[in-house]
């Protein structure tokens, strides 16, 4: 019996199968969104935008109070209406 007799015709030697490369998940969701910014920088930007939003609501509430002659007792109503106005939501 020859050496070729034990082989299957047309078969090739087994090749090493490598696993597909899967990229590692990002360290955090924030890194995925802004990979070039640190978490501290992103937190600072969020805090700044919240401060700007608060100032815009305060200004709108002030003008609402001014329109009604600064009569006391409607401060919360003015603030909530200003929040809706700034956010674009209906009252």
Overall structural domain count: 1
Assign a percent range to the helix content: 40-55%
Q: What's the helix-strand series?
A: HHH
Distance between the termini: 93 Å
Number of helices: 3
Radius of gyration: 33 Å
Q: Give the amount of beta strand, in percent.
A: under 5%
Q: What low-confidence regions span 5 or more consecutive residues with pLDDT below 50?
A: none
Morphology call = elongated
The SS-based structural class is mainly alpha
Q: pLDDT average, as an integer?
A: 77
The major sheet is characterized as: none
* Number of beta-strand segments: 0
Structure characterization notes:
This protein has 91 residues and is mainly α. The protein has one domain. Helices cover 52% and strands 0% of the residues. It contains 3 helices and no strands. It has helices spanning 29-33, 39-67, 75-87. Helix 2 crosses helix 3 (75-87). The protein is elongated and about 65 Å long. The mean pLDDT is 77.
Helices and strands in order:
Blueprint: H1 29-33, H2 39-67, H3 75-87
Helix pairs in contact: 2-3
In short:
The chain has 91 residues and is mostly helical.
């Amino acid at each position: 019996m020859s050496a070729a007799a034990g082989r299957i015709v047309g078969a090739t030697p087994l090749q090493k199968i490598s696993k597909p490369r899967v990229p590692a998940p990002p360290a955090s969701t924030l890194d995925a969104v802004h990979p070039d910014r640190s978490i501290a920088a992103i937190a600072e930007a969020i805090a700044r935008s919240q401060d700007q939003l608060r100032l815009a609501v305060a200004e709108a509430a002030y003008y609402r109070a001014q329109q009604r002659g600064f009569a006391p007792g409607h401060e919360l109503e003015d603030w909530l209406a200003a929040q809706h106005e700034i956010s674009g939501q209906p009252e």
